[in-house]
Amino acid sequence: MSIAPRRSTGLLISTGRAVTRQCGSLAFYRSRQLLHLTPQRPPPPSSTFTRHVPHAAGFHASARRDVKAGDAIPDLEVLTEHSPGNKVNLAKELQGKGRAVIVGVPAAFSPSCSNSHVPGYLNHPKLKDAGPVFVVSVNDPFVMKAWALAMDPMSLSGVRFLADPSGAFTSALDLSFDGAAIFGNARSKRYALLVEDGKVKESFVEPDGTGVNVSTAENVLGKDF
Q: Which of 111, 117, 80, 83 is nearest to 183 (CA)?
């Protein structure tokens, strides 16, 4: 007499919403159950992704712009002459002193600066009528001193070469640009400023930042103060 194999009735598993009678589906069911029961982290509030963009550093809190007529020369103790300890504050030096010219260049010893831009001022016939003339570059004071000696060995022109080591003066004028690809750091656009009693009377900023066109001595010193 043969005995028929006894069929398994399986397991009865209840979770309130679903019932399964298949033993083989238990692991699958539990895995799905765990997925549903695993607490989900709520998305962070939108403010988490809000990026705060501070105002550009400078002597005004408006959006970045090149220095314009009527702006005051930044009152900063950051420029140096010949050595790190010899600080120059152009705002204080030029206040109430009449006319002056500030010439900004991208780099000491660079070809355009050394071959045409700065020599144009050193040799211009109206240089003596322009008042104090300053050449400013984002370089260290030792480089600027060496460059001054190379450009004007006897210091006959009276032009003063000032270093802006941190670029703070240039940034305050909103005249810095990213020169990392060529110079390794932020540098100054090429410009010239006619200054009277500590305020900008007229600005000459190169449209492309580095060309030698609108900021030349011929164009700037030919203007009537």
A: 111
Inter-residue contact 59 to 198 (CB < 8 Å): no
Rounded to an integer, what distance in angstroms lies between the CA atom of residue 81 and that of residue 142? Answer: 9
Q: Which 8-state DSSP code applies to residue 23?
A: G
Question: Where do runs of H (alpha helix) occur along the chain?
Answer: 26-37, 90-94, 111-112, 118-122, 141-151, 168-172, 180-183, 217-220
Radius of gyration for the alpha carbons in the chain, expressed in angstroms and rounded: 35
Classified as helix, coil or strand, 69 is: coil
The string of pLDDT tens digits covering residues 99-111 is 999 999 999 999 9
pTM score of the predicted model: 0.71
Whole-angstrom CA distances from 131 to 6, 102, 221, 224 are 114, 10, 11, 13
Other C-beta atoms closer than 10 Å to the C-beta of 59 total: 16
Give residue 184's pLDDT band: very low, low, confident or very high (50, 70, 90). confident
Nearest to 136 by CA among 110, 170, 89, 85: 170
Question: Could you give the CA distance from residue 208 to residue 224 in angstroms, rounded to a whole number?
Answer: 25
Is 113 annotated as catalytic? yes
According to DSSP, the β-strands at 176-178 and 186-188 are: antiparallel
Q: Which residues contact 179 (CB under 8 A, 6 or more apart)?
A: 106, 107, 185, 186, 187
The residue from 73, 76, 108, 113 that is catalytic is 113
Q: Compute the distance between CA of residue 224 and CA of residue 11 in angstroms, rounded to an integer.
A: 102
C-beta of residue 107 within 8 angstroms of C-beta of residue 180? no
